[in-house]
C-alpha cells in the first residue's frame, strides 16, 4: 500500500495551527461577551447628568447637575429653587440582593477579579483544546513506540497507518523500510546457513583425500593440513549454530527444540573431565537443575573452557583453568538463578575490551591465529545465555587472568 502525499488541509502543522487559532478565537469571543455584559450592566446603573424639579403644573422650579457623594449614600443633587431655597435630592444606592448575593459581574470590577476571569477562561480553553491536540499527538506516540521496539531488536514490529497526513505517510514509509530490512536480514541469514551447510561436502572430500595420501606429505605438513581442516570444520559448525540461533524466534523458547531439565553440575563435571579443568564445587550444594536446551548449554560451557585453554593456560597446565558453580543468592525480589563461571590464569582481558570480545569474529589485539579459534565462540556463549534468559560478563580474576561468569535463571 502506498499513500499519496497529504493535501494542504491534511497537513499536521496546519491542523495544529488551526486548533490554536480556534482556541484563541473562542477565548477572545468569550471575553468580549463578558465585557459587553459588564458594560451594559454598569450603564443601566448610572444616573443622568442633570436633575430637574417641576411642580404639579409642570413648571420648572429649578435644575442642577449631579454630584457624587462619598460613602454609600449614593448620588446627591442640590437644586436652587426660584423661591431662593436649596433643595437636596439623594438617590440611594440599590440594596444588595437578599441572601448576601453580589450584583452580577461585581467580582470582575477589581484587578484580582480580572485575573480570575482570565485564568478561568484560559482553563476552559485549555480543557476544550486538549482532546483535539491529544488526538493529533497520540499517533506520534504510537509511532514512537513502534520505532523503539524495532530499534530494540524486534524486527517484526510495525506501526498502524491512520489518516492521510504526515504522520500516516511517515508510518507507511517506516513499515516499508522495516519490511525491507527484515527481508534482507532474513535472506542474509538463510544464505549464510545454506553456504555453511554446503561447505560440509568439499570439506569431507578434502579429509578423505588427506587420509588416502601415503607418500609425498611429511608428518609436519600432514599435521598442519589436519589443523587447518579442524579449524575450518569448527568454523562451519559455529556458523551453522549461529545461523540457527538467529533464524529461531527469540520470543519462542521452544523454537530451538523441546525444553528439558538440565543438571548443570553434571554437565560441568563431564566437560571439565574432558578438558582436564578443575571443578570447584562447594559442599552441600543443592541440585543445580534448570529448564533449557542441554545441547546448547553444553556448547556454552565447552566454548568457555576451550577459550580458557587456548588463551589462559599457565605453563601448559590444564588445571589452571577452573570451573565453578554458585547457587542463587540475594534477598527478596532478586533474580533466582545459577552462576556458572570459568576462570584462567592467563594475561587476562583489558577492561576496554571486555565487551568487544563478545562480538562475532573479534579477536584481541596480538592474538595469534595459530592459537586456534575463529572469533565466534564467545559470541555464541552470549547468544545461548540470552536465549535462556540469562547474561554473561567478563571480569578480572583475582590473582591474574580472566573470569567469565554466566548467569542462568531458574
Task: Kindly describe this structure.
With 410 residues, this protein is an alpha+beta fold. It has four domains: 1-47 and 104-161, no CATH class; 52-90, no CATH class; 167-247, Signal transduction histidine kinase, dimerisation/phosphotransfer (DHp) domain (Helix Hairpins, Orthogonal Bundle); 254-409, Histidine kinase-like ATPase, C-terminal domain (Heat Shock Protein 90, 2-Layer Sandwich). The protein has eight helices and eleven strands. It has helices at residues 12-45, 111-151, 166-198, 200-212, 219-247, 264-275, 294-311, 377-387, and strands at residues 50-54, 60-65, 76-80, 86-90, 260-263, 278-280, 289-292, 322-326, 337-343, 391-396, 402-409. Strands 6-8-9-11-10 form a five-stranded mixed sheet, covered by helices on one side. A two-stranded antiparallel sheet has the order 1-2. It has a two-stranded antiparallel ribbon with strand order 3-4. Helix 4 packs antiparallel against helix 5 and helix 7 (294-311) runs antiparallel to helix 8. The mean pLDDT is 76.
> If helices are DSSP runs of H or I spanning 4 or more residues, what is the number of helices?
8
Report the strand count.
11
Please describe the biggest sheet, giving its number of strands, its sense, and whether it closes into a barrel.
5 strands, mixed
Q: Which spans have pLDDT < 50 for at least 5 consecutive residues?
A: none
- In round numbers, the mean pLDDT is 76
According to CATH, the fold-level topology of the largest domain is Heat Shock Protein 90
- CATH homolog superfamily of the largest domain: Histidine kinase-like ATPase, C-terminal domain
End-to-end gap: 46 Å
Number of self-contained structural domains: 4
Q: Shape, please?
A: elongated
CATH class category of the largest domain? Alpha Beta
Q: What share of residues is helical?
A: 40-55%
Helix/strand class = alpha+beta
Amino acid at each position: 500500500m502506498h499513500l499519496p502525499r497529504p493535501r494542504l488541509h491534511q497537513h499536521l502543522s496546519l491542523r495544529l495551527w488551526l486548533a490554536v487559532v480556534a482556541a484563541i478565537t473562542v477565548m477572545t469571543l468569550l471575553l468580549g461577551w463578558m465585557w459587553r455584559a459588564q458594560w451594559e450592566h454598569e450603564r443601566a446603573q448610572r444616573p443622568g447628568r442633570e436633575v430637574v424639579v417641576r411642580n404639579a403644573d409642570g413648571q420648572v422650579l429649578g435644575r442642577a447637575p449631579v454630584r457624587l457623594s462619598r460613602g454609600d449614600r449614593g448620588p446627591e443633587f442640590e437644586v436652587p429653587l426660584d423661591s431662593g431655597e436649596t433643595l437636596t435630592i439623594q438617590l440611594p444606592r440599590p440594596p444588595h440582593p437578599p441572601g448576601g448575593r453580589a450584583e452580577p459581574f461585581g467580582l470582575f470590577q477589581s484587578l484580582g477579579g480580572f485575573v480570575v476571569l482570565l485564568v478561568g477562561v484560559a482553563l476552559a480553553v485549555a480543557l476544550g483544546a486538549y482532546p483535539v491536540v491529544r488526538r493529533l499527538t497520540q499517533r506520534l506516540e504510537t509511532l514512537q513506540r513502534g520505532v523503539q521496539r524495532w530499534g530494540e531488536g524486534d524486527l517484526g514490529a510495525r506501526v498502524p497507518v491512520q489518516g492521510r497526513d504526515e504522520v500516516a505517510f511517515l508510518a507507511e514509509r517506516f513499515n516499508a523500510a522495516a519490511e525491507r530490512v527484515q527481508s534482507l536480514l532474513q535472506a542474509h541469514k538463510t544464505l549464510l546457513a545454506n553456504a555453511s551447510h554446503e561447505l560440509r561436502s568439499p570439506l569431507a572430500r578434502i579429509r578423505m583425500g588427506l587420509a588416502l595420501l601415503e607418500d609425498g606429505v611429511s608428518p609436519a605438513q600432514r599435521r598442519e593440513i589436519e589443523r587447518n581442516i579442524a579449524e575450518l570444520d569448527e568454523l562451519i559448525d559455529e556458523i551453522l549454530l549461529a545461523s540457527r540461533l538467529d533464524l529461531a524466534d527469540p520470543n519462542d523458547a521452544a523454537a530451538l527444540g523441546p525444553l528439558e531439565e538440565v543438571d548443570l553440575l553434571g554437565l560441568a563435571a563431564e566437560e571439565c573431565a574432558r578438558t582436564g579443568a578443575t571443578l570447584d564445587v562447594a559442599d552441600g550444594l543443592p541440585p543445580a537443575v534448570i529448564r533449557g536446551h542441554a545441547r546448547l548449554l553444553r556448547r556454552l560451557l565447552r566454548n568457555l573452557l576451550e577459550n580458557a585453554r587456548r588463551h589462559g593456560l599457565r605453563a601448559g597446565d590444564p588445571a589452571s583453568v577452573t570451573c565453578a558453580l554458585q547457587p542463587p543468592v540475594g534477598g527478596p525480589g532478586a533474580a533466582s538463578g545459577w552462576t556458572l563461571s570459568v576462570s584462567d590464569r592467563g594475561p587476562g582481558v583489558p577492561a576496554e575490551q571486555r565487551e568487544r570480545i563478545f562480538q562475532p569474529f573479534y579477536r584481541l589485539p596480538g592474538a595469534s591465529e595459530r592459537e586456534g579459534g575463529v572469533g565466534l565462540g564467545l559470541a555464541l556463549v552470549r547468544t545461548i545465555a540470552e536465549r535462556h534468559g540469562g547474561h554473561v560478563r567478563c571480569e578480572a580474576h583475582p590473582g591474574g587472568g580472566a573470569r567469565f561468569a554466566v548467569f542462568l535463571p531458574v
